[in-house]
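so i finally got all the pieces together for this one. its three components total, 1161 residues if u count the protein bits. some of the lines might not be protein, just check the labels. i wanna see the whole assembly predicted at once instead of chain by chain like last time, that was a mess tbh
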Amino acid sequence: MDYFDRFAVPHPSPAIYASMVAIGLTMLAVVVGITYFKKWGYLWREWLTTVDHKRIGIMYILSALLMLFRGGADAIMMRAQTAVPDNGLLDGQHYNEIFTTHGVVMILFMAMPFIIGLMNIVTPLQVGARDVAFPRLNAVSFWLFFMGAMLFNISFVVGGSPDAGWTSYFPLASNDFSESVGSNYYAIAIQIAGIGTLLTGINFIVTILKMRAPGMNLMKMPMFTWSILITNFIIVFAFPVLTVALALMTMDRLFGTQFFTMANGGSDMLWANLFWVWGHPEVYIVILPAFGIYSEIISTFARRNLYGYNSMVISMVAISTLSFVVWAHHFYTMGHGAMVNGIFSITTMAIAVPTGVKIFNWLFTLWKGKIVFTVPMLYSLAFIPIFTLGGVTGVMLAMASADYQYHNTMFLVAHFHYVLIPGTVFAVLAGFTYWWPKMFGFMLSEKIGKWSFWFITISFNVTFFPMFITGLDGQARRMYTYSESTGYGPLNMLSFVGAIGLAIGFALIVYNIYWSTRYASRNISNDPWDARSLEWATHTPIPEYNFAIVPTVDSTEAFWDSKKKGFKLFGGKVEKIHMPNNSGVPFIMSCIFFVWGFAMVFSMWIIAIIATLGIFACMAHRSFEKDHGRYISVEEIEETENKLRGAK
Amino acid sequence: MKIKWALLTILFTIATVLTGCDNPLMVLDPKGPVAATQADVIMISIWTMAFVVLVVIVLYIFMIMKYRASKQRDDYEPPHIEGSKVLEIIWVAIPILIVAFLSVVTVKTTNEVEATPKGYQEQEPLVIYASSSNWKWHFSYPEEDIETVNYLFIPTNRPIEFKLYSYGPIASFWIPQLGGQKYAMSDMVNTLHLAADVPGDYMGRNSNFSGSGFAQQTFNVKAMPTKEYDKWVDEIKATAEPITEEKFNKLLEPGHVGQSTYTGTHLEFSPAPEGEHAGHSMHGSSDTEKTDSEKSDESTKDSHEEHSEHSNMNH
Amino acid sequence: MKIDNSLPLEYSTEENRLKIFGFWIFLGAEIALFATLFATYFVLVNGTGNGPTGEHLFKVPTLMLQTIFLLTSSFTIGLGINAMRLGSKKAMLSFFVITLILGLGFLGVEIYEFVEYVHEGATIQTSAFLSSLFTLLGTHGAHVTLGLFWGTFIILQVKKRGLIPETANKAFIFSLYWHFLDVVWIFIFSFVYLKGMM
């Protein structure tokens, strides 16, 4: 029986048993539903084996939304627990698991895939390409991410969640102090998803650098594409560091190595350094694409071109470079002396300069514009002042001497939520609403959208602003409870109220999707927002080959020019188009990865070895496979084009 | 737009809350020179940043109010504007100046808080070893040869040098009203300089997450004039029991204990990881190193066993 | 598939060019990966705890043997690619086979070396220094092992399907990978072994 004890949750509570039942029932319902409606074949042919960047993007976004609600549920529980002093809703252990998974899920399984999903859908269209450079690899990326996320999520019902914080500092995360398999899940699930992300990075760099439409030189790319290019460079150089860090962690926990141990020469600070050498660039991986999204939306709805295009590009390059030389500001208090702290303070504050340039450029994009307050624009406009607050508190935190007082407090928590929520969450919500008609052929309701916008924006401030104050009053982060005499009670209650408001806002978004799917008009044009870049130049719904004729470009806003100045976007004539074949191998290989990960988490070596062989077999299969793709004939293209034109 | 006004109101509210009221926030209510320096830096940065926020918000409100579509002619066609060298240079240069100013402040004050506080340099600092174990604090006073658990008595108007280390996960030693925090780690000793100007009771805690008992890992700090402090030390010496290795190991077991006091310090049998006892960067083949590693081997094993015992209790 | 005959076979199609460029980016990521492993090694090199130091462990003969094997194999794979460009399938295959045999030799010596270390009581669990040493060398060794399988697959494919844009592309990319492993070895040779023995 001992053998099976490991699979039990170490700290069961009624909520966890309820979740187990809920998960079981949901899965059963899904399986029964698909079987009843005879959709297995459709699911396999159209989704599980797809290599189409648009479908992969949609799957990324759906998974990200799912994870948003998982992470959001964690957040509500945390706020509920701390709403009143000496609360007994959750015990310490449970609370620790929840804030750990909240952090990991929100950053790695919500923000990243949401960004990558939008990147998948939009980037190839914006550069006028038919797909990404390596469509099959793209499917591998998605399924690895998905399986990593699923593996991480089963931790709370099988074996126990990680409980050492999303930073997972050693020696706390070592076997000595975290005995359950939770931290194994952390090391292995993130590893699997991380490999997928790294492959995405390579794929999109090649796509953007090598597959742009004729005439689109680098300085004529849309700003979103620029942000994606830079982001992917950060991914390619930062993610290997995480790969190594997690591998070392895995070996310390499973194979008794001594990297981060307290004896035999190990160094706990090494983990903190490796983690943040990846972790800080990671922040910019989720922020830079958001900057790109805002640039697109603000210029679309100010009805003006983006102000200061060149300085926008230069500032992003500067931010990405600086992001690699600031990591030590996450632990000024580790005692590396005034000199080192001073240097890292200066590099960190320097990031404020290029970021400031961007803020002013956005403001001046509004100048002499004709601002239309659509839902995407509302998010983008709300972003500017709120993110400024997040940014300036970041400068305050960057000052080492003062950081000794902010470190590990709610002030820090408030700061990074003020950066990440307007920076990333608002951006993906804006981008999601903005590109929704291109993805699905109808618009989301503006009315419900505005309701959820106001709920989210106001509640966000109600939730997180009080934390600046309690932080300065000495409330440390990650405390599952506090006594009444501290006086933190009222402001924490306020945060809880805000959290409820946020939950309502997000629920309204779901309701909006439901309502619009049922009632919204399907009769929309290819360019419902009167936008400026190439993704709006093709049909809605987008044909699988994206563009029947590859567009020619001669400015940053060729599509706008084609509407206003009669620029001819599509010269040339229709030719047969080469497209990649679907493949089930990425999905199957990722399933094997899931099995491998599960076996590793529980040290089931034989299964792990068999799974490893399976993964290599999939790679060998790919090596020997003869796959020349297929051609879509001219007649077929013309037929599709006529049908899509006729639909309007 | 409502939100801008809401933001402005919020800004002014914090400004008033932060600057002066009857119940000031701990970090901004310093009782010693280090915390005072840090509170000054915080206020300087808040005012500087408030200026930045104000500029952004004024521009923002202007743009949004003036250029909304509802205020334009229907046939108004916004112009194509590439950007402006002059303007862009302005909003690069001014932030650089602000950052440069804050950098100077940071470097200067960081050096200040990393050294014996100003005005105290001529005094011999009181050295206190503060070590963390799951989930408590041990304070060893080598000069007085006494040890306390979970509470700290210090003399006012004398510089104090805390030597920080840990018998487990990384902890962070923090007394907000006396000064900022620093990590206590298992393989090295960190030095934190503090001093108290005003007698009183202050909250101290571990602020770095260290497992399930972390929330309650706090300690009381009592600062008092030297005379009273000396009296307290004498009293302890007269009444407290000596600390033994056995007692100390019992204290190290994971869990919470109340306050207690001993004569002698644990440094005699369980030295801090400094000098030849440092946990990392060991090189060479001296005998001491070997015994040291053996010792740490044992201690890891011990703590492991203790820990499993503890988590069994949790089940 | 449009084939551009003015370019070498491995670059002749759009897909091939993308793959080669993509692989260069991948090598960039590999550089970041090995750089992190080297950094870890340098941080922990003095964390020898109870275990032996590099000075005690490193032996000249095995090191020289490994280095000769790998450097020569890098040369022979270059000859292989040259033969491929000249269109000589047979010469190319021979050079590839020699390359893989040399790689196998390298791996054999490395495994022998690891076994020796373990016999001297230096395992991956002994100290932080040894953990980082075994991980750095092991990661390189695992890359070589993977390369052996990959190379074999390519030989089989070239043999069966001849020198066509697809197979030439695979062989060329493999050669980039192999050269990269050689470069990593030069760093290991200088900064791990030579520095450790001095």
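The longest strand of chain A covers residues 577-579.
Residues 370-541 of chain A form a domain with the Cytochrome C Oxidase; Chain A fold (CATH 1.20.210.10).
anyway lmk what u think
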